[in-house]
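INFO batch 0412 | record 1 of 1 | parsing
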Amino acid sequence: MYVYIPGVLDYLSAEISTSKQKKFSLVTFVDTPGLVDGDMVYPFDVNSAIIWLGEQADLVFVFFDPMGQALCKRTLNIVEKLSEKCGDKLLFYLSKADEAGKETDRQRVMMQIVQELCRRPGLNKCGFEMPTIYIPNPQKPSRCVNQIDSVCQTIEKTINQAVQKTLDQLEKDCDLICSTISSRLEKDRADAAYNKSVRLHSFLCGALGVVLPTLFILSFIVNTLSKEQLDELLGEGASRTVLVLTGIVIYLWDWIPEDGQVVFVITFGAFCYLLLFLAKYFAGQGNKTLTKKEKKVLAKYSEYIQDVVKIKKGKLYEWYLQQCAAEYDL
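INFO prediction complete | emitting tokens
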């Protein structure tokens, strides 16, 4: 898009119609410049601009003028390119058909156009149609069949399809948003449960890493004190608990041969260090979770989409068309 804008904008003009007939306010017409062969140089890359616009549009109308027949090579090259990229929305019309002369003259012009188009593989398609259209002139009646109403019907049909497609996409987007929010909240609950488990592992490892060496050292200190001294320091109930715990440690220590006690202390210290390392490791493994405010906002979004947006979908189509309908159509 940005490739063409610098040149196109300098030669772009706009006209606005306030008419609401035939859903006119929903239509944006882009009239591209007429093309001629020869050494004509355009001030911007007109070929690329027309092709890009054709890819963006819902419909592409190709008007053949019976006077010049619009059969220049440059025009047909662009039409062929458009047919390759967006052939399903490419429509051909014989414009100013009332100026083509008699019916035989008009048929001859149409045959010339069709023959020229059929020479190009990209335009040689079955079911080729080219309705005749013109703007009626009360001062100059014509017997030529005017099929301009079919153009209007085609435009209205495309609008209806586009609106319906947009509303269908709206519903899909609503479902996608709600499912995304639901998945995010579900993931947050899973992350919160995972974080709780990780914190528990971190606490247990940290507690064991501190309690075990403390109990080991305390056991040897308590072993140097009498029961009366412990009762005086801690009280009778607490001293009894401490004596039981330290007694178990001393009992297990006595089972270790003297020549293996140094190895045991080193191994025991390494084990306690490992527990502290694991406590720190688990503490850093938690996942980021949503705050209460963030969860509340997501829940409100989901509720609004379900209770407001999706419910109004059935009325949006009617409201949308009413905005562009003429008063006598209401």
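INFO post-check: The first strand starts at residue 60 and ends at 64.
INFO record closed
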